[in-house]
Specification:
single chain; 73 residues; mainly alpha; Non-ribosomal Peptide Synthetase Peptidyl Carrier Protein, Chain A; 3 helices; 49% helix; 0% strand
Length: 73
């Protein structure tokens, strides 16, 4: 799942793949702004055919948080 998320971050958000590690923080390390983060979450929802609850969004801080969230659905 990590590799799929990494691919989306590279292809959809234009992030350098060397920066994408499980511990990378989406805003602080990968420098996504709030609009880009919202776009990325929507992309994940479409790609994996899931729905991420609004109250869970605050928990998705690092790349690994997204991976774990999707894997546990």
């Amino acid at each position: 799942m990590f590799e799929k998320i990494k691919k989306l971050l590279v292809e959809q958000m234009g992030i350098d793949e060397k920066l994408i590690i499980p511990e990378a923080k989406l805003i602080a390390d990968l420098e996504l702004n709030s609009i880009e983060l919202a776009e990325f979450i929507l992309t994940c929802e479409e790609e994996f055919e899931i729905s991420i609850k609004d109250e869970d969004l605050k928990k998705l801080v690092c790349v690994s948080d997204i991976v774990e969230y999707i894997e546990n659905l």
